[in-house]
Amino acid sequence: MTKEVQPYGELSPDSVSVGLGELFVSKEPQIILVAYALGSCVALCAHDPKVKVGGLAHILLPNTPAYSRQNGDNVPAKYADRALLELVTQLEALGASRERLIFKMGGGAAVLSGSSLFNSQNNPLPSRLDIGRRNIQGILALLYQAGHYPTAADVGGQAGRTLFFWPNTGKMRIRTVGGEERDY
Amino acid sequence: MAELQKYDPSPDFIPRLSVFIKAGVEKAVQALSKMVNREVKLMALEVELVAVSDLLVWLTDEQTPTVGIYVLSSNGPSGSCHLMLLFTTQDAITLAEMLVPFESGKLPGYDSQLTELQVSALAEAGNVVSSYFLSHMEKAAALQMYPMPPYVVYDMTGAILDTVIADLSSYGDASLVLDTAMSTEGHQLRGQFLVMFDNLALQKLDESLT
Amino acid sequence: MPTILIVDDAMFMRALCGRLLEENGYRVIQAQNGMEAIAKYREHRPDAVLLDITMPEMDGVEALKEIKAIDPSAKVAMVTAVGQQAMVMSALKAGAMEFVMKPFDADKVLSAVQKMLATKPQGQPQG
After folding, report:
1. CA-based nearest residue to A3, from A62, A47, A52, A58
2. Which of A97, A114, B99, C59 lies 20 to 30 Å from B65, alpha-carbon distance?
3. Confidence check: pLDDT of C17 > 90
4. What pLDDT is recorded for position B143?
5. HSE value, Cβ hemisphere, 13 Å, CA-based, for A19
6. How far is C63 from chain B (nearest CA, A)?
7. Least CB-CB distance to B159: which of A38, A78, A178?
8. What does pLDDT average to over chain C?
9. Number of other CB atoms surrounding residue C18 within 10 Å
10. Which residues in A3-20 are b (16+ Cβ under 10 Å) and which e?
């Protein structure tokens, strides 16, 4: 997969922005994968500690909708069911073993229900828009079915997240709009 | 841009729709002008058929902290319409202060927060703008949709919009986006008004505007 | 000093309307939904009511019917948005006296209130 590699501030010489529905794997020590501005989307990260490779999938929805299956649109990571398969396949191509993979994930917020930054507001979302929750549940179910579980998850809540992932070490960092950072 | 799935509009649909939608947005913005007691002007209006997967790229800088006022309107057989007003933090404060001249508040990063009353005022602005726009759609295209109560949020633009993109993606890959800039004289209020129709609503509009 | 009951789920609308009426010499009571409106009406017997049509749980038209059941001479103005013709019609049938369209002019709110207060108490809708 080719993708433009851009320098990212103080973090690293090379960061790769993984956009909505995109997936990127790497074994380069200097690379940082970034999923910017996750709302209900979930970034699923995987890392093989032995061969030091990792990847990130920026997932929009848990299941591939019927129209997309029919039209065969080419977005490997948009839907969790295909994203997990594709992530594992691409990591195996870089020498990873699926048994050794460590998974981490972040995102799945209910941003529209009112950011926690507004103290007073908390409108529950109708199920139609409660996509963050469906994403988290869908991805967890897929991981369990495949015999995996996430070793770290920074999910849910009402605040959007930017997620950084170091494929070479498996470190995950979450940054929220207020500038708060958490490492996993 | 990715190929549009499933939905293939008639050739002059977009120009026809642009005229129709522009009138609706003008009515909505007039109502907003009345709320803030000064003229809000439409600066630019762009109507484009965009693949849902390209929406985020097309729209905006995803990381920018933004205040969004969001209204989902739907009607089973007529599909859905997502209405979103986006303002920078400073412009949201300006708008809130225009709406509630007797209160002042600030956003995170500006020491404090918008007050509950100001958030309620922004929600009401969303109510008014969306009801005028939807009423125009009903009159001009017999497309009736029912708005939900507005949500007012503060977050990164991408995080605000990805739920809308996910919802649109569940119904098809085509989306019509209307991107409007508005401003008020002297007050530097600038905002974006986005209208995103799903596949089903687009087909209905295509039929009724023929 | 005439008492006006303002019923709206939006705090902003209650605040805006409340200030306007207080500045013009009215006493204001507020309710945020239909149930609360009925309770407040019973308790305070206001001289007039400004009632929002769209509210969660019990909408304005339902609340209007309940208020009219408590007091057939209740003077109620509905606050409406565009595109609510159907609800406006049913509010009219249920005995609403006046309508104020959102976003509203201060003058129109005041004149609706003044008109209601000037009307002699009776059970019939004025349209």
Report:
1. A58
2. B99
3. yes
4. 84
5. 13
6. 19
7. A38
8. 90
9. 18
10. eebeeeeeeeeebbbbbb
